[in-house]
Amino acid sequence: MKKILVLFFALLITSLSTVFAASESILVSSKELEAIQKHIGEIGYNILNSNGIEKRMVFIFDNSNKIINAGTSSVSRTIVVYRGIYNFMEDDNELAAVMAHEISHGVDSYDGIFKGLFSGCRYFFTPRKYEYKADKRAVDYMVNAGYNPVAMIIILNKVASQYRYDWWFTYPLTSRRLMQVYEYIYTKYPEYLANNKYKNNIYYQNFLLTSRENREKFQEKVKTKSTKKVHYL
């Protein structure tokens, strides 16, 4: 009986996700849709192959314009990139950031049904620890696949809302996610900040402005642990 209820719950989530996806779409040529689908597939499979991920997933472009997001089905292991977020992307690094995050959720979906549902149920609840984990693992996936992980800060700052509190919301505050990504890159991949191709990007400059206090606190922690006094942008 429990297995039936769990299966019903999973199917309900999937069907409701489909309902959300039925939003307004942009009328474009079939050639453009084919080109975008190919683009998304190439980056998705590059991330899978470069990281040796032995979990099968598929990548779909959805022309729904009002959904500024991407999602992972924990049932079908389908990763969907919506037109709404695709329009914000300026290079392959930003697209790779979104897809690497979703691929991380897809990997978790293979680790038991409950963990898969919790990590992949984007429209209802996603425990914060899975979001932080997906962000950090996405940084690793990006680096291994030849993408610049700083782009994750760029795309998050562009599209992720900033709520006042997160105690009532399962998603972490975007400002905290941005700092976690920054700290992870700073600690594990400092060369991307030392030679930061995004340092003059307006979205990155905005991150530096809004995170100044938190970055100063982080810098103090770094100084107490090391004799090196290095400050990366």
Could you explain how this protein is built, in words?
- The chain is mostly helical and 233 residues long.
- The chain has one domain (2-225).
- The protein contains 11 helices and 3 strands; from the N terminus they run H-H-E-E-E-H-H-H-H-H-H-H-H-H.
- Strands 1-3-2 form a 3-stranded mixed beta sheet.
- A hairpin with a 5-residue loop joins strand 2 and strand 3.
- The protein is globular and about 55 Å long.
Topology:
Elements (H helix, E strand, L loop, with lengths): L1 H20 L8 H21 L7 E5 L7 E3 L5 E5 H4 L5 H17 L4 H8 L7 H17 L6 H9 L14 H15 L2 H4 L7 H9 L1 H14 L8
Parallel strand pairs: 1-3
Antiparallel strand pairs: 2-3
Helix pairs in contact: 2-4, 4-5, 4-6, 4-7, 6-8, 7-8, 7-10
The structural domain count equals: 1
The portion of residues assigned to helices is 55-70%
Strand residue percentage: 5-15%
Helix/strand/pairing category: mainly alpha
Distance from N terminus to C terminus (CA atoms, Å) equals 55 Å
Task: Describe the largest sheet.
Answer: 3 strands, mixed
Which residue ranges are poorly predicted, with pLDDT under 50 across at least 5 consecutive positions? 3-23, 119-124
Relevant terms:
3 strands; three-stranded mixed sheet; single chain; 59% helix; disordered N terminus; mainly alpha; 233 residues
